Automatic annotation (TrEMBL):
InterPro entries in alphabetical order: P-loop_NTPase, PhoH, PhoH2-like, PIN-like_dom_sf, PIN_dom
Alphabetized Gene3D superfamilies for the sequence: 5'-nuclease (3.40.50.1010), P-loop containing nucleotide triphosphate hydrolases (3.40.50.300)
Protein name as annotated: PhoH family protein
Originating organism: Belliella baltica (strain DSM 15883 / CIP 108006 / LMG 21964 / BA134)
CDD domains tied to this protein: PIN_VapC_PhoHL-ATPase
Length: 448
């Protein structure tokens, strides 16, 4: 079927494999413009279609979507996308060009074949703007060196990261001293005494100040009250600053079912989450502590020596370190010390890679997801959608410390979560700013 439109304002977007693996339905998100998939992308997707990771799911779903869209059409021709406002798509076979990216860059690679596809469209689709869309920064730079427009896949990216950073904790100065005194005496006050009739976000944390006097508070939107927040112990772990106090309050608050804690290394994110989970262990059937596996140098864990347990141990060690730190607050003869060992042995407390837990039913579970900035938005949605009755989920991470090549501070799952659910009554977010690991660790975070 030939391309029906002749509007030169209609752009052509060339998608690479990284975009498809990030979002299988990305082909549908280019409005009235046309989309081209180089045949090299389909060849690469064939390598990803088997497995249980999210990228495998995305590959399979895209192949099914393409099959459904093509029906009886030959997909190397322009084929209409669904909907009257959508454009067309086609699969582009490996073309012959006057300019060959393989020769220019001195190496035959799949990335260069994708660049050749974009070059071919520039030559054959005269007057139309051709744009390569990729999550791979290096591929975008190569494209620009060949005078090809290139951009990131923007759908789902957080636009205002500064606003995201300010979510969760707020400072209110010049508060009436009588209000602060009442909070110390009665523990809570009517929210109207502070905010008047203004609508306030659910589960926000506030530092109320009057000159040298201050109080830590939490806004309970259910009762429209400001409640005093006191430092509390969780399995002998005590918060060391206001942000940690707020974070532990959210972790321990039974009304809040979803919590995100953002902060740099050493701010106590995972430690507080685990301590809070241990303190509430009687309220849940199991405690899961998990993190995504991000292999070093982007190599699969199969490159590491040993059996599967040996391969995974290096990735799980930071989680065990936090557990040992909590356990070592007690003597070996103390019942609290022995209880942690018992919980691990009876699998009431489970530390595993996220891939091992994905797909399980999460009912009556306290679930901590560490390093959540290395998840895609789809992975975060999948985890939360598995939550059953009496399940609480804590996501911890640093949105500026991304270890996967195709995510950044604006497109990772943790940023997406904070942005999308920031005003929901079941959700609370806290940013930890002050490092409490050591003065040396603070020096690294601040000056290096």
């Amino acid at each position: 079927m030939p391309r029906a439109k002749s509007d030169k304002d209609c752009k052509i977007f060339v998608l690479d494999t990284s975009v498809i693996l990030y979002a299988h339905n990305s082909i549908m998100n280019f409005a009235e413009h046309d989309v081209v998939i180089p045949i090299t992308v389909l060849e690469e997707l064939d390598q990803f279609k088997k497995g249980n990771d999210t990228k495998n799911f995305e590959a399979r779903e895209f192949i099914r979507l393409l099959d459904n869209l093509s029906k009886d059409n030959m997909i190397h021709n322009w084929t209409p996308l669904n909907g009257k406002t959508k454009g067309y798509f086609r699969i582009l076979m490996n073309p012959d060009n006057n300019i060959n990216a393989n020769e220019i860059f001195g190496e035959e690679k799949n990335d260069h074949k994708i660049l050749n596809a974009a070059l071919h469209l520039k030559q054959t689709e005269k007057g139309r703007k051709v744009i390569l869309v990729s999550k791979d920064i290096n591929l975008r730079l190569k494209a620009k060196s060949l005078d090809i427009y290139a951009e990131d896949y923007e759908t789902g990216k957080i636009k205002n990261l500064d606003e995201l950073e300010n979510t969760g904790k707020f400072l209110i100065e010049n508060v009436d001293i009588d209000v602060i005194n009442k909070l110390y005496d009665a523990h809570h006050v009517d929210g109207k005494l502070i905010f008047g009739r203004k609508k306030i976000k659910s589960n926000g944390y506030y530092i109320l100040k009057n000159e040298k006097t201050s109080v830590l508070t939490y806004f309970n939107s259910e009762d429209n009250t400001m409640e005093r927040v006191d430092k509390q112990l969780a399995y002998n772990v005590k918060p060391k600053n206001a942000e940690q106090t707020f974070a532990l309050h959210a972790i321990m608050n039974p009304r809040v079912k979803l919590v995100s804690i953002q902060g740099v290394a050493g701010t106590g994110k995972t430690l507080l989450a685990l301590a809070g989970a241990l303190e509430q262990r009687r309220d849940y059937k199991q405690v899961y502590l998990a993190r995504p596996i991000v292999p070093l140098s982007n190599k699969d864990i199969g490159f590491l020596p040993g059996d599967i347990k040996s391969k995974l141990n290096p990735y799980m060690e930071p989680l065990w370190d936090n557990l040992k730190f909590i356990q070592n607050q007690f003597k070996e003869s103390d019942k609290e010390y022995q209880k942690i060992t018992e919980l691990v042995n009876q699998e009431k407390l489970v530390i595993q890679p996220l891939a091992y837990i994905r797909g399980r039913s999460l009912s009556n579970i306290f679930f901590i997801v560490d390093e959540a900035q290395n998840l895609t938005p789809h992975e975060v949605k999948t985890i939360i959608s598995r939550a059953g009755e009496n399940t609480k989920i804590i996501f911890t991470g640093d949105v500026f410390q991304i270890d996967t090549p195709y995510l950044d501070s604006q497109s990772n799952g943790l940023s997406y979560l904070i942005d999308r659910v920031k005003e929901h009554p079941l959700y609370a977010h806290i940013k930890l700013e002050k490092g409490e690991r050591s003065d040396l660790a603070n020096l690294a975070n601040e000056l290096l």
